[in-house]
Amino acid sequence: MGAVDDVLRGGGACGALLRQVDWAKTPVGPVESWPQSLRTAVGIVLASHYPLYLAWGPEFVQFYNDAYRPICGRTKHPAALGQAAAVTWPEVWHMLGPGWERMRQTGEAIFVNDLMMPLDRNGFVEECYFTYSHSPVRDESGEVAGVFAALTETTAQVIGTRRLATLHELGAATADQTATDDACREAMRVLATAPLDVPFALLYLVDDATGSARLAGTHGISAGAPLAPETTPPPDIAASTGWPLGAAASTGTAFLWEKLPGPSGTGAIGPWPEGTSSAWVQPLPRAGHDRPAGYLVTGLSPRLALDAKYQGFLELLARSVTTAISQARAREEERRRADALAALDRAKTDFFSNVSHEFRTPLALMLGPVEDGLQDPLEPLGPRQLERQRTVHRNGLRLLKLVNTLLEFSRIEAGRLHATAVPTDLATLTRGLASGFRSTLDRAGLSLDVDCPPLPLPVKVDPDQWEKIVLNLVSNAFKFTHQGGIRVSLRWEGTQVVLRVADTGMGIPPEELPRIFDRFHRVQGAQGRSYEGSGIGLALVRELVRLHGGDVSVESVPGQGSTFTVTLPTEESSASPSSQEATSTPASVPTSITAAAFLEEASGWLEAERPPAPLAAHAVPLPVMKNVGGHVLFVDDNVDMRTYVHAMLEDRFEVTLAANGLEALEACRARMPDLILSDVMMPELDGFGLLRRLRETPATAHVPFILLSARAGEEATVEGLRMGATDYLVKPFSSRELLARVEGNLAAARARQEQRRAEREREKLIAVVEQSSDLIGIGGPDGRAVFINEAGQRMLGLEGPDAVRSTHLFDYFLEEDRPYVRDVIMPRLREHGRWDGEFRLRNFRTGAAVPVHYNFFMLRDAATGEDIGIATVSRDITERHQREAEAREQREFEQQLIGIVSHDLRNPLNAILLSAHALLQRDDLGERATKNTGRIISSAERANRLIRDLLDVTQARLGGGLPVQRRRMDFHEATRQSVEEVQVAFPERQVVLEQHGDGLGTWDEERLGQVVQNLVTNALRYSEPGSTVRVSTREDGNHLVLEVHNEGRPIPPEMLPTLFQAMRRGHHDEGRSSRSVGLGLYIVQQVARAHGGDVSATSSHEAGTTFTVRLPREAPPAYDIVS
């Protein structure tokens, strides 16, 4: 083993395996017999980290290292080590063997790049690619004894490059397809160039209407073959085709279909002899749809593993196909839409042409008689009818102008309009057309500068068409110019005639300039004199100028004005080739109906800026409908319409007029209307904008709003109502219809207003009911409960409305109380309409009685007086009953206390006082005993006074105040005696008494003594020891006033409000004490109130403290002298 370890040392796992081989049993023999050339070559293989391989001897026995081992796969390693190459690689020996044999003969090396070798190394024949160099290894004799191979597997690179090329070609081939079927065919053509990755492919498209799948492309399998049906119905897609399309559709993900049905005699599918046996089914998603756009079924190569890279490639294929289908469908839809629009445009042109022709006849029959009536000298019209006919004439001309413009367009589009060019004095014609606007501009306060000097030669133009060009440009300038003026100039410049119409109006925003000559285009937000217009005037100008071989352009600065420039060639061929030559005579200024229509329209814009003049009321009135009255705001930018509607409404309503939405908002702020009637299309703020602002403002959110519009049809009506309009009226409308709509909406608005008021009241009532802590209930006429609020449900133990509705009136009372309810309460309720009092209800959960104050009343119909139900408002008085019971117990206790104090405490005190007084009568009593006996008497008397105070407080709190025994007495004398008694207890203190006036009156002398003693004692106790207490009594009319004043620390301000409450005690200086229990001042107040008087106190550092008692001399009239 030493030689083996020495020769085959290292090499990792493969080196270890080589060392375990019994080389004596192999064609190369034992290691000890190996020539040095073999030993060296094996050492190089094992030592390298690059995939190296050595085949030695005639049998090509194999040696390889760890880097080479993955090439052997799962099935050939480790058996290949020491094995003959032909045994290991039988599937490719026909590719390797001949070359190696030739190398042994010739010694020439072999090099190949990306060679495909079908290896069976992982359980199936696998498509593999290698780049390798095979070199001869010579032995000691110089002969080729082996093959040395250095190789790299390039399978991933080769297949990846191939797949990338397929994806690139697929994207390029389908990118520009404009039809879905063409995109599908191109996709299949590209996939057919990649059979190694996609042996076959089927592309199905789903029909949106039926859900069936249609075969739109195929590769590798003929359409209609068993595995490629041309259509599949939705219900049984999988069963009918053998493909799991249904599973892919339901999951929305790719699906592996293994073990495909046999080819049924069609042969193997794909480029390999074994054929494909599985497929990958992918749904092709469609944005915004649950159902896929289709399915892509791709066969899987039998010589490739379905790893992540293979699945990723197939997913990219499906995405590319999905994109191709989506783009092709989008182009198809765009083409269909363009065709439809072109057809619609042609139909619209034909329609306008036909309708315009049809309109001209009735318009001629309208305008002719109207003009005759306006100019009839024999039978002149009255003022009101004259104004109406003028309105008809103006709007008839406007309609004719629009019809003529539409007809011109239809003829231009049909190629039937030509310029009948004749030599024309263009300066005279232009000057006359522009000057026609002078009077209108003068009335508007604008200047008109017409600068059209004679031209050197006549210019060939169509006079009628030039008339339309000039009138449209000047009319447009006037419409959008509010200050300054308009300038019209005509010049001969080189080989061109140039017309310029300049104004000082609002100008055109730069972003609008490229589209200003487009048909039906209108500048958004332009503040013109009128919002009316079709948006085709300037477009017609451009078309007419082009018919003359010229051009039109515009320059504009917002806020400064615009200049429109028309250039016409002056050559003889200036008119279009199809023009007809006319007599070369100068054209005079036309007085056509076209010019009249433009001038009337411009004059109407000016009139629209002025309030309508009152109309004479000579016409026969319409039948008077029910007069609902009210204030109507009518908003329209057309002065004729404002005048017309005002005349219709003024007899029935108060009417305010506004010319646009902004004026209407100002009118609403000045005075809120009852109804708003508004046109839709107006300058500055249109009807929809006005409606939106009103609905966003709470104050105007509910004002009825009727929209007037020329847009008919259900869609227009729905749009208006969706915006928040109350009603929608289509022009033209009759006066009867307008009046009916206005009156109907006003009446409905009042009804809604009343309903909202009632709803607000109902909401308030509901809020009161729900927030109330009382039981509020309603029952039907049959006695069944209908409603009880939440507080009532809690009170009675009910749970929810269902529980309430399952009860009857009598269920709410205790069983023993129900006869009283039936026989007493209910008859009184029906007779008098209500009953109230204290009663008991029943708690449904516990069965316990709930004492309540019960208000019970009938609900009656206000119109008929019939009973429609019953209601109750009941308050739970359980707590009140408990408080009353506690109060009764307290009064009983206090009465007992009074009895105990009066009898059980006073009796011993009286005995003590009698005994002490008797003891003082003895002559043999010593000085010390006499002093102690005096103290006993003083303490007993103080205890007696305390008992009396306690009895007084208790009686006062029991109600009724203190009892008083009135008799006629002298207030001054009683005060003096009381002061002297107090001074005995305070001999060291000075009390000054002052008395003034008559002191006679009726009072309780003992109670007044209490008052004086308490106040004086209190003053002495809380004043400085050396200070003086002043007591005064004086008469004040029918009252006597007692004042007790002391100096010293004032009473704190926060104590003054509660000073006369029981048990309140003042603050003492440090070191001083008081035996007071805080009843004195309370008794003083009660005694004063018992006499019909009062007591008050003032206190401050500067003035000291003063208590003032004010008592009437005589008892009130209801009092007896002795009570």
Automatic annotation (TrEMBL):
Positions of the UniProt region annotated as Disordered: 567-587
Catalyzed chemical reaction(s): ATP + protein L-histidine = ADP + protein N-phospho-L-histidine
Sequence ranges assigned to domain PAC in this UniProt record: 835-889
Limits of the PAS domain: 761-832
Annotated Histidine kinase domain residues: 354-572, 900-1115
Response regulatory domain segment(s): 631-746
Biased composition (Low complexity): 569-587
SUPFAM superfamilies for this protein: ATPase domain of HSP90 chaperone/DNA topoisomerase II/histidine kinase, CheY-like, GAF domain-like, Homodimeric domain of signal transducing histidine kinase, PYP-like sensor domain (PAS domain)
Keywords on record: ATP-binding, Kinase, Nucleotide-binding, Phosphoprotein, Transferase, Two-component regulatory system
GO molecular function: ATP binding; phosphorelay sensor kinase activity
Descriptive protein name: histidine kinase
